[in-house]
Amino acid sequence: MEIPIDAGARISGHAGHYELGFLNMKTREVRDVAPANDFAVARIKRQLPNRSSIGLIAVNRQSLSHFDSKRPFNRTFGADANVGLGRYTNWQNYYARTQSPGLTGAAHAGLSSFRYDNSHHQVTLSYREVGPDFNPEVGYLQRANYRRPGFGYRRTFYPEGKVRSIYPHFQWNRWYTLGTNDLESAYWHNDYGMNWQGGESISLQLNRSFERLDKPFEVFPGIKIAPGRYGFSQVDFSASTNQSATRFASGDITAGNFYSGTLRTLNLSGGVRKGANLTWSGSYTRNIVNLREGDFTTDLVGFRFNWSFTSKTYLQTFTQYNSRINQVGTNIRFALLSTSSNGLFVVYNTRAVTMDYVDPHNQERITLSRALLVKFTYLFDF
């Protein structure tokens, strides 16, 4: 359901070493869906030497109608600090809290991430924590009530000859429930990759996953995976040609366990360029899943077209078919720019079904939605 926007304003720019931004927007009430709301975001960031910075952000949603009597507002406050240490080390940190009526538990989120990266070694160490009542309604939250430590290492070799680089690496992440420290999820990624001087590449991966399901998970319509603890491994092999060449292609094959059964995935893509202005490309992905609860297959097909008339004027289209929802979606975007961020944008979106469909008004139709958007941006210097 689309929420109408009645009005909005945005101001952003620099003042000395400070980056400033402010956004305010009013949305209309949609009966039985959402109240009228006023949204506001304010951001300030101070640049410091050696890739360092500190910043503050505040986000507010205020209900303008009596539709939302239980939660008339939602607020988020956050601070961040990025520290550059020497040439190769960065230390990223943030902390945020939310205010939501009716939620009185831990409403915090924080991250501390260390990264060392030179031409031969890359080391990452991180710790993230999100409280059970952290509720950033003006944004996205994948999960709450967890802590997640992570560690990764990459070693890059540069042999002489036809091979440009070899980069074996691994990444280890685990998610624990706050309070009980019970393991929720885990992911261990092992990868042996190689690039050639001509731009070709191959990669062989071994991935190990763990998921704790506390309630049934509907992975496909009518197929639900039962609650429990599932550990599964998958092997993945991918290869690609030079993606900047006139003709380019890539392929990926995955096979292994998936919850109570098995998964096989085939992913193919490729394209053609004509000069520097025209590009056609396509992709196809098939998933074959066999589970104790049932079997299913999904297909995803996409086509892209890009025509750059000049460096600042272009036409882009993207069409995708998804067998999981039996829909075809198309996005068409035209841009006429004066700079990289100033100019006119015209966007057209449409969605259609590929099966019989009767809408809530008892009318048979194919098209689900159409939208035409026109946007003009101009930045003022003061």
Average residue-wise pLDDT: 92
Secondary-structure content class: mainly beta
Overall outline: globular
The gyration radius over C-alpha positions equals: 25 Å
Tag the structure with descriptive keywords:
mainly beta, 22-stranded antiparallel sheet, 382 residues
Can you put this structure into words, describing what you see?
By secondary structure, this protein is mostly beta strands. It has a domain at 325-382. It has strands spanning 5-15, 18-27, 37-48, 52-63, 73-85, 89-99, 108-117, 121-130, 146-155, 163-166, 169-177, 183-196, 201-213, 217-220, 223-225, 228-240, 247-258, 261-274, 278-291, 294-310, 313-322, 327-337, 343-353, 367-377. The strands form two sheets. It has a 22-stranded antiparallel β-sheet that branches. The chain has a two-stranded antiparallel sheet with strand order 14-15. The chain is globular, with a radius of gyration of 25 Å. The model has no long low-confidence stretch (mean pLDDT 92).
Q: Quick summary of this structure?
A:
With 382 residues, this protein is an all-beta fold. The protein has no helices and 24 strands.
How do the helices and strands line up, and which of them pair or pack?
Blueprint: E1 5-15, E2 18-27, E3 37-48, E4 52-63, E5 73-85, E6 89-99, E7 108-117, E8 121-130, E9 146-155, E10 163-166, E11 169-177, E12 183-196, E13 201-213, E14 217-220, E15 223-225, E16 228-240, E17 247-258, E18 261-274, E19 278-291, E20 294-310, E21 313-322, E22 327-337, E23 343-353, E24 367-377
Antiparallel strand pairs: 1-2, 2-3, 3-4, 4-5, 5-6, 6-7, 7-8, 8-9, 9-11, 10-12, 11-12, 12-13, 13-16, 14-15, 16-17, 17-18, 18-19, 19-20, 20-21, 21-22, 22-23, 23-24
